[in-house]
Amino acid sequence: MTISHFGAVLLFSLFMSVVFGITQRSEPKMMIRFGAFCFVLFVGGTIAASWLMWLIKH
Amino acid sequence: MTTNVQAQARPAQKITTLPPVLILIAGWLIPGAGHFLLKKWIRGTLIFVSIVAMFSIGLALKGKVYGPNTAELLDMLNFAGDLGAGLLYVIARAFDLGQAAVQIAIADYGTKFIVVAGLLNVISAVDAHSLATGRKAS
Hints:
The structure holds 2 protein chains of 2 kinds. Chain A has one domain (5-57). Chain A is 86% helix and 0% strand. Chain A has helices at 5-24, 28-57. In chain A, helix 1 runs antiparallel to helix 2. Chain A is elongated, with a radius of gyration of 14 Å. By secondary structure, chain B is an all-alpha fold. Chain B has one domain (17-133). In chain B, helix 4 runs antiparallel to helix 7 (105-133) and helix 5 crosses helix 7. Chain A binds chain B through residues 1-3, 8, 11-12, 14-16, 18-20, 22-23, 26-27, and chain B through 43, 46-47, 50-51, 53-54, 57, 60-62, 106, 109, 112-113, 116-117, 120, 123-124, 126-127, 136-138.
């Protein structure tokens, strides 16, 4: 199996966010909100870190 | 205001008669099993699918499955993470799944997927235990 770097980020973030959402909040609505928040932070943080590394290199 | 604080501090009621330790062990051995025993079907299913998929993708990416006999500190930590996957780890070891050493760059992602799947499983099992003891509301 091969996977792109961004694909790996998306899958990793998705599974992490699902489990974090379920385990860190009590109400279903808040679980979805927290899961979505985690997903955005994971993916956004990775993209931001990627650009930071690009800027350091150049 | 005092009444509100007291109401928040009061522990939630138990939702099962099963021993919480049983819930914890079941949740560790099989991802989501703790939630299934508490009749939290949707949560259990989502946890099961997420952790099994993460572990399987890690193996498919040729990730490394750590063993107990190693002298490296980081390897020991990774082994502890892998062990969190419960029976998934036992199956992977029994059928010699995963690689003994990471040989391609993408396999390092696989290794991390496997370790994180185990850590997430521990979090899920503890969450089910908290639900069983009443520490977590619902």
